[in-house]
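User: what does the whole thing look like in 3D?
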Amino acid sequence: MIRVNNLSKTIGDIKILDSISFEVRDGEILGFLGPNGAGKSTTMKIITGFWTPTSGNVEVNDLNVIENSLKIREKLGYLPETVPLYDEMKVYEYLKFIAEIRSIPPEKIKERIKAVIDSCGLEKVIKKPIEELSKGYRQRVGLAQAIIHEPDILVLDEPTTGLDPNQIIEIRNLIKKIGKDKTVIFSTHILSEVQATCDRVVIIKNGQIVGQGTPTELTRQAGGQEIIYVKIRGPQEIIKEKLKEIEEIEEIIEKDREAGDIFGYEIQPQTGTDVREKLSMVVMRNNWSILEFSKKSASMEDVFRELTK
Amino acid sequence: MLDKDYLKKIYILTKKELMGYFNSPIAYIFIGVFLIVLNWLFFNSFFIIGQANMRNYFSLLPWMFLFLIPAITMRSWAEEKLSGTIEFLLTLPINDWQAVLGKFFAALTFLGITLVLTLTIPYTINSLGNADFGPIIGSYIGAILMGAAYLSLGLFISSLTKNQIIAFVMAVAISFIFFFIGNDFIISTAPQGLAPFFKFLGIGSHFDNIARGVIDTKDIIYYISFIWLFLWLNKEIVALRK
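Assistant: Here's the predicted 3D structure for the full assembly of 551 residues, as structure tokens:
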């Protein structure tokens, strides 16, 4: 459990965090979203005890991060944004160092290293110096180091940046797996990731929280707008005119053209109304034909853009 | 505070730092160059003077340290800051003192290894004529203390910057000031009241005492406080990150 209370951080004259509060519940994966420079990394640096807040506090498992920094650090795994690793060490040496400094009992060290090698897919690079690793492998070593001591809480700062799509999916699955019995907070600006992985989302902008909730809640909040996409064969101008006569329709945008007189339209109905039936009636009455019909709800991207613009 | 677990973590950190030294070729190059230059400078005059003592050698040592030690310490914090590993290091379950001491003991071990490799010199001397081991042992103790003082200073300076070169040059310059300030030349030209103060402050003048075979508590206290002061400053700088 992480509880962030009225956290503020000022560096020089710049207010990086402005009194933010949120919590991450036990066994929950929280997505921490926001544009670059919004204060995500700063929040994480404070949670992990690297920085101290200007005001406000953070409690991890009911312990204050400033007063009980060492105790919390024992239970916490952290992957900083830039994935800083000791380049001149070999992967195995590095993991062994982490295992030792994290006070894993000597008889369990081998077993734990083996476990993270398996779960992070590091078999191939175990004897290589870290400096020779690709970005993807570095990220995995960073993740391995964060979970080797089986922490209750995992703080991951943009764990998937710089990875290729396959690696992203691997890492995402790994986070999901870990998140089953641990508390995870991770930051990202890849929005599909949030929908795929997170139980809850906090969106932050200019050091302030602008939205939080489950991905579904947030998309519903964001205007609850639904957009209907329909592809119709028929005279474009007349179709537009006729459809405008349906009073529940607010806006019709001509989206694309497939061929000849086949056009795709995006239709935005009034909030809370369902115009699909009326729409198909109009089309049938005029002897046009519907070739495609779909309903889109606002995506995480819309929410994000709406909240952070 | 000083329980077994606390010390063990310092030991683990020291091991990691030493791995850092010896995983890169720089360490071997520096040890090699140091030994070659030192041996050459020493034996150059040794055969001219023709005496089986090491006085000459131990008067060279402070000068060699001026360059060797900043080279040992320049990386330690600057590199961590540059690559960002400091963020990772200082979020491990260790406190700032442990991090500082880990680096200090690793640097000290490195220096110790280098000094052990210079033992060929007293060995050679002893086989050429009978060496007087009293002053030699005293001088080695003095060399370790003086080296440790320079190391703590160098580590502190390294914690002030991200740039290894700046750390090196600054450490050479400031070590030189501390070395020079106790020099006879400075003391004789310094204002009356300040002369004993300068003499006390100078790293070199304390070393001279020990090198003569006189181990005075005053000198030991000087070195210990010097080392402690800069390690403490180092810890304060590390804590300032926040």
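In plain terms: The first helix of chain B runs from residue 4 to 22. Chain B is about 80% helix and 0% strand.
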